[in-house]
Amino acid sequence: MRRLLLFIPLLIAVGIGVFLFAGIGKDPTKLESARIGKPVPEFQLQDLHDPEHMLDTSVFQGQVSLLNVWAEWCPSCWDEHEYLMHLASNEGVRIVGLNYKDQRETAFSFLGRLGNPYETIIFDPRGSLGFDLGVYGAPETYVIDADGVVLYRHVGVVNERVWQEVLLPVFNQAKGNS
Amino acid sequence: MRFYPLLLAMLFVVSPLRAEVMEVYDFDTRAEEQRYQNLIAELRCPKCQNQNIADSNAPISKDMRDEVYLMMQQGASNDEIVGALVDRFGEFVQYKPPVDKRTIFLWAFPAIAVIGGLLIVAGVVMRSRKQGQQETALSPEEKARVEQMLADKDQPSER
């Protein structure tokens, strides 16, 4: 009995080791999204291409979409744009853009240089919809189902790996349900 | 070598870095301002983690401070303000997580650690007391032997 008690420190050390090891490799900048399972927050914002045209949550009704938060000033947005072009033109994915805290002129020059993968672009110069969504760093990409409910949020660049492993399964499931 | 004093001087010139928050808000009362300061001190910036939104000058922190101020002006309570930000950014933004099923262990841990430590200390003390009693309780033969030995020691030993 006495002998067994001597193993207690070892057990404690192993326990702490297992607990700490589980944390290694976790990306602390990836936060849970509070919006998952909830509808896209209400908004009234201009269409980037047509200031007369006001957009609201109805842009997400009827079709499964990706909502991509981007801005000309965001370096990673330049990196992921080519892949978004590929998704839109070759995979037939509907992408709605949210131009976040940007200006019309810079946004147009960005699209002029890299192309436009977005079906619709919401113009959010003050970042109000971004704030309601909980955007804390562009680029962010949301999977939104045909009822306008947020299913998933990805923070960071979308590339082949992220699309295949993370977003596509959610996207396909949403398509299956609608 | 003659640069030494200069290097030393430069060492002291390095001033502590402090993030400064630029914007100024107007409050009707001191109490309101204090409430605002408390709120922004216990909300955490989602972008620059490990900073509260009072210290952080990330744009998102500014948006969050604006929202706190705006909601205060609209007469929202502290819980409503924190709740509105948690709805957007998740539990992460709270430095003080609420007590619920997931966090109960976190909250209870200090108490568990203190009670556990007291139990260990109590155990150690009790055990040593027990041993102390046993040691003083010498049998009559042992006592006689001890006295014999002490008596021997007093006499000059034969060498």
UniProtKB/TrEMBL annotation, chain A:
Q: Which GO terms describe its molecular function?
A: disulfide oxidoreductase activity
Q: Where does it mainly reside?
A: membrane
* Keyword set includes Disulfide bond: yes
Gene3D superfamilies in UniProt: Glutaredoxin
State the SUPFAM superfamilies in the record: Thioredoxin-like
GO CC annotation, single: plasma membrane
Q: Which PROSITE patterns match?
A: THIOREDOXIN_1 (PS00194), THIOREDOXIN_2 (PS51352)
A Pfam family that the UniProt record links to this protein = Redoxin
- Report the membrane topology from the UniProt record: Single-pass membrane protein
Location in or out of the cell: Cell inner membrane
Q: Which domain of life is it from?
A: Bacteria
Q: Does the keyword Nucleotide-binding apply?
A: no
Q: GO annotations under biological process?
A: cytochrome complex assembly
Arranged from A to Z, the UniProt key words for this protein are: Cytochrome c-type biogenesis, Disulfide bond, Redox-active center
The UniProt family comment states: Belongs to the thioredoxin family. DsbE subfamily.
By what name is this protein known?
Thiol:disulfide interchange protein
Q: Which organism is it from?
A: Marinobacter vinifirmus
UniProtKB/TrEMBL annotation, chain B:
Keyword Transmembrane helix in annotation: yes
Q: Where is the signal peptide?
A: 1-19
Q: Which Gene3D superfamilies match?
A: Cytochrome C biogenesis protein
Q: Which UniProt keywords apply?
A: Cytochrome c-type biogenesis, Heme, Iron, Membrane, Metal-binding, Signal, Transmembrane, Transmembrane helix
CC per GO annotation? plasma membrane
Please state which protein family the record places this protein in. Belongs to the CcmH/CycL/Ccl2/NrfF family.
Q: What does this protein do?
A: Possible subunit of a heme lyase.
Protein name, please? Cytochrome c-type biogenesis protein
**Origin species:** Marinobacter vinifirmus
